[in-house]
Amino acid sequence: MRKSYFFLILVFALLLSACNTKKQNAKNSDEPIIENVYLGQKPPGLIPELFAPDIIQTEHREAAAALTPDLKEFYFRRRGGIHKNNTLVVVEYKNNTWVESVVPPRAGEPFLSLDGKMLHLGNKYRERTNSGWSEVKSLDAPFKDIRIMRLTAASNGTYYFDEASETGPIRYSRLINGIHEEPKMLDIDLGQWNAHPFIAPDESFLIWDDQRESGYGKADLYISFRQKDGSWCRAINLGDKINTEFGEAYGSVSPDGKYFFFHRSFGGDTGDIFWVDAQVIMALKPN
What we know:
Elements: H1 2-29, E1 49-50, E2 61-67, E3 73-80, E4 83-94, E5 97-102, E6 110-112, E7 118-121, E8 124-129, E9 132-133, E10 137-138, E11 151-153, E12 159-161, E13 171-173, E14 175-176, E15 179-180, E16 184-185, E17 194-199, E18 205-210, E19 220-225, E20 236-237, E21 247-253, E22 259-267, E23 270-277, H2 279-282
Antiparallel strand pairs: 1-23, 2-3, 3-4, 4-5, 6-7, 7-8, 8-9, 8-10, 11-12, 12-13, 13-16, 14-15, 17-18, 18-19, 19-20, 21-22, 22-23
């Protein structure tokens, strides 16, 4: 009788231990899993955070973020220290780790096509090949002689771009029968200095940095949404959670539409890349 009693106690203890183990495993499964995308970072909420500070942040200037569609290659420009001029850098996932390298020889402001096959660098570009990126090529007319800082493209091939030699215009050029038309001025209210446009893949909104007396700092990020009749709504400041007394620029949305990336400049060769949940910009869309 006594042996049976102790046997029952032992069985109960084992069952209790197994139950606790299952509970512990369930608890652990709720913890965020670091995947091989976004440089293995825990996603941000509605307050901007430094992006991958342990991987890309230095005491110098990092700006102009661009991600490949699979989210495993992160391109940006660095300036400062040994990099006297803007240098194009990539951090990519290789052999189960994140590896940083320089992308020679040109450091134009990067933008990746939606299929990941073209790396735009202003009025130049590189094409993806089986062995890596091609040599740097120049866009044909009518872009070849325009001093483009940043060029981004919608899913239908329409280009949106700025110009370094002028303070005002943001222009666009539609792709018609495989040929880009002569650029046209964008009919949108702009400020004193407008640069680095980012167009949504479906052209539903445009983000750019601008300098206005009504802004928060040296440069602020603005957004305009396309309306049902095809016109653009008034420029909307992204607000004091993103814009500060410093200079904010190079806004872009990740290829999956989940996160908003931008640069904050602290002057000279110092500045960082931040990210935040894209809900903060979509919440600004007029009803």
